[in-house]
Structure formats: C-alpha cells, structure tokens
Amino acid sequence: MDCCGKCCVVVVASCPLSLAVTTGIFTERFPSLCRPHSRRTIRLERGLLRLLSGMSAIGLERILNNISDSTLLRMLKRSEHHVKRPAPRVIGIDDWAWRKRKKYGTIICDLETRRPIALLPSRDVNTVCAWIRSHPTVQVVARDGSVEFREAIRLADETIQQVSDRWHLFHNLGKKIEEILKRRLPSSEKILLEPDDLSVERELTDAERRKWTLVQSVQQDAKQGVPISVLVRRHQIDPKTCRRYLKMTEPPKINRSHQKHSADIYKRDIVRWIRQGRTTEWMHRTLSRRGYARGISTFRPYVAKLKKAVPHEISINRRIIQKVLWEDEPSNEPLLLKILDIYPFLKQLNELVRSFKELFGETTSEQDILKWCEQAERMNETPLSSFATYIRGDVDAIRLGMTLPWSNGMVEGQVNRLKTIKRQMYGRAGLALLRIKILNIT
Q1: pTM over 0.90
Q2: How far apart are CA 431 and CA 425, in angstroms?
Q3: Top-ranked range on mean pLDDT: pick from 15-29, 219-233, 307-321
C-alpha cells in the first residue's frame, strides 16, 4: 500500500523549565516503488507513459475510465527530464509542417544512435544555425535540397560536411523525367508485343547443366581423336547417345510437354482472350464460372507462358514507361526494347538514367558528376538542364551523398511518427508537449 508521506509522531521531552515539541517522519521511503504523495506506483506510471506515446490523453481516458485526461497530461509533463545523450557527431535534419504551406518546424536526429534529439519551432536560418553552434561536436549533417538548411549549416560551421540525401536526388530526377514524358508522350496507348520480342532465354536446370557438361566432355575427347568405342566406355553412354551428343551445338532443354496443365482444356479460349487483351484476372473469373477449380496462383504462370508465344496488345501509360526506364529487371527487358523502338528519343534518356545510378559508389569524383551534368544538358530538355544546374550548385554535398553511407531515411521515418502524434492531439497541444512525446517517450 502506497503511503502519503505525512504520517508523523509528536515527541514531548520533559524539562523542568519548558516543554519542547518536535515533529519527525517515521515512515520508510520506497523510491523504487513509488514517489512521495503518489497514488500510483512507478511501474504503473511508466506503463501509462508508454500508452501515451502512441495515443492521445483523451483516448486513453476513455479506455481507463478512472483517470482524467488532465491527470494524464500532468503526468506526461512531469515526466520531462533531460536524458544524458552522447554528443551528436552525425545528424540528420528535416522540416515538418505545423500547418502545410503556412508554418514549419525542424526535427533533428542522431544518425548514429537513431534517435530524435531536437525539435525546433521553425526552419529559418537563424534558428537552425543557433542550434548547430550550440553543438560543436557535429561533423556531418544529412539533409535534403533545402536552401535554408544549407545556408544555416554553412553559417554555423563551414567545416561541417553536408550530405545530400540520395532518395531526394532520385525523386527529383524522376520528377524531371515525368515532365518530359508528359510533354512528349500520349497519356496511354496500345502496343503489340510479338513473340520474338518476348522470347527470353530461360536458365538451365541442374539436370540440364550436368547433361551439357557431359556433352562437352564427349565432344572434347572426340576432337582429340578418341574413337566412339572408347568414348562409350569412358563416359558410360550408349553408342547412339554418343553420336547424338557429337552432333549437339547447344545446351539440351528437357521437354516436359507430356505433363498436362489443369487449364489445357481451355487453351483455345485463353489464346483468343490473350489476343483480345483480356487480363489474367478476368480470364480466371470467367473459367471459374465454367467449372475451373484451381486458384489464380496456378493459372497465372500458365497464362504468362502463353503470352510469350502469342502476339497480343497491351495498354501502357507514362507511369509504366517511366518504371521500365528506371528498373533493371530482366523481365522488363523485352518491353523496354519495344518502347525504345517506338520512341527512339527514350534511348538517350534511358542511358542517362543508368549512368546516373552508376554514380552512386565510393569512388565517384566531382568530375564524374560534372560529366553527367554535361551529358544531361546535351539532351536540350529544360527539366534536365534545371536539374543539372541544381547539381552544379550543390555538387560537394551531392558527391558525399553518393559516396558516404549516411542518408535522411531514418529522419523521414521520425517525421512520419511526428505527424501521427501531432494529429492525435488534434492541433491543440503546443510545442512543449509535442517535444516531450517525440524526444522523451520512446
């Protein structure tokens, strides 16, 4: 049972001249169990604080039904304490919106401990510069392309290494490519995919690889003049098989055509629907109404195999084209070749994207980045020229962003957490309470 800490005893000392009255506390303190005058144990308060880190005080009051939201807020504000954190060396900085396009704040995270360490009321140059000057141990700052942050870091300490975030670089280039595609391509169109364009050579299986190794050994021995009778005994194969191996010029493909698929009885209809441009989901729903009992996970590979042999039309839009240009997936290679054949100007754009992705490595130099900017400017596209100008103006930070492992990914996650907590409080709490929930409650 918790004690209120007010219990006392009056001790009367007898004296011939006067009576002296003194008071003293005789209760024993339990600092690990509860605080003086508290009606809740420390463990219960910690549990309530953990709940408050993920929900509002009003929401928790509705669940508990015996503690008011005001009491919970007082408990939360009382929990504010200055935790001893190591001096930050590598930090990430980003802005967050009190009210979008109206008022912004700044969040700063320690990228080594992966924890938020500061929440500033604004993102102006003076506020950020003052915080960085108060932390002289900072050596590296990861940021986005914000001009305010760049200037604040420069004013605070010119020796600090500024690292441009990699995601923002890719995002900005993607936006520029999207502008080009919007101006030069239709919103959507249908293209015909021929089977020759989609004939992707499959990899050999283990059995096929072993058989091809045996074939090459037989052919190598035959080139050295070994007779067939010796080859048969050496490799333990039949004479007819040995003669067939000597005529082979490419790896064997084990034919499994004797294994029938559950959708083979509907093959004619499936081929007709593929030519009409029907989706796999539509075909599966139609066949299910006819009695086809297998799931779509079994049906989908069968349709994909038929599509490689049947010329068919597909509908593509700018988003699909941009995705194919960005990704180096082997499965996208046939579609990429078809798109580049229809729009030849995309070949240069595709090479530009690939060369930009190759810049991200430990050996990238400033000259490599400037060469890429010259390549982008030669395309005579206004969006790419503006992106190259941006890179030239912040080339040092961009080079460090391409070569160093630091990025703003963790900071973006904390901004997302901050937005969730801020919206839980319905905008009625101030910066002090928000700072407690972001920095102290983890």
Answers
A1: no
A2: 11
A3: 219-233
